[in-house]
Amino acid sequence: MHEIVVVKQVLGIAIEHAEVNNAKKVAKIYLSIGELRDYIDEWVQRYFDHISKGTIAEGAEIILKKVPAFSACDCGALTKIDRNNMYDLVCSKCGSSKLHINSGLEFLITGVEVID
């Protein structure tokens, strides 16, 4: 259910983008979502369909791109994060457990396709 909060924000941004560009319709919204986010793709579209009714974004398609999750080590190595084993992370190069999430937490609107 937490998807609805961010989907409302996405809808507002898409409508604002369309209005500023004098567009009549929002056709597609492109999102990049990190693998570590707990958003379920199907629910993002469902909630969007529900809350966009009666707006210029009604019927718009949400295009999702998953961003892989990696951790960074002070030694400079990047290690792929296994979401199912996040608490036992060690650097793939030096074995250190002092890692920082480098990617995988993103939630970005990367594009809005509108119709004039």
Task: Please specify the SSE layout and strand pairing.
Layout: H1 3-20, E1 25-34, H2 41-51, E2 61-67, E3 70-73, E4 78-80, E5 99-103, E6 107-115
Parallel strand pairs: 1-2
Antiparallel strand pairs: 1-6, 3-4, 3-5
Please name the defining characteristics of this protein.
single chain; 116 residues; alpha+beta; 3-stranded antiparallel sheet; 33% strand; Hydrogenase maturation factor HypA; zinc
Describe the structure.
The structure is a single chain. The chain is α+β, with helices and mostly antiparallel strands and 116 residues long. It has a domain at 3-68 and 103-115: hypothetical protein PF0899 fold (2-Layer Sandwich), CATH 3.30.2320.50. 25% of the residues lie in helices and 33% in strands. The strands form 2 sheets. A 3-stranded mixed sheet has the order 2-1-6, covered by helices on one side. A 3-stranded antiparallel sheet has the order 4-3-5, with no helix packed on it. Helix 2 (41-51) links the parallel strand 1 (25-34) and strand 2. The longest helix is centred in the N-terminal third of the chain and has 18 residues, at 3-20. Involved in the maturation of [NiFe] hydrogenases. Required for nickel insertion into the metal center of the hydrogenase. This is Hydrogenase maturation factor HypA. Belongs to the HypA/HybF family.
